[in-house]
Every structure is written in structure tokens, then in C-alpha cells.
Amino acid sequence: FDDRIVALLNDDTTEVGSVHLGIVHVFKLAKPKVQKREAMITGLTFLPKEELRSRRETMETWSQICLDSLERLLG
Question: What is the C-alpha to C-alpha distance for residues 24 and 3, in angstroms, rounded to an integer?
Fold first, then answer.
């Protein structure tokens, strides 16, 4: 896989976000095969951009910010 850092993320609109700094990575995988390593992760799947956009309101704030800038982040 290839990994590159594409952004730093700060979100002062939430209590948690205001005290954390996010580092946004883009991973390019040879195959869409990923395994979860944490018990808290209950579902793991790849979705088309259109499906992600349709689910935007159900996402946490950081995910919404990334989704809103997805084209630029993917460069």
C-alpha cells in the first residue's frame, strides 16, 4: 500500500474535537482487503463516494469535514 498525509484536522465545534488534532491519511491499496483490529469496530466496508455522501448526516464531525473535502484530499 501507499500512504500519504494530506491534511491536519481541527474541529472546534465539539468538546472532543476542540482538544484533539487529526492527521488525515490517504491509503492506496493494491486490493480492497482490510481487517479490523479493534473490538469497537463493528462494521468495515468500502463504499462508493455517492453512498458516503448519502450517509453524511450519520457521520461524526471529522468524517463530515473529510467528506466535504474528499476530491481535494484525494488530489
Answer: 10
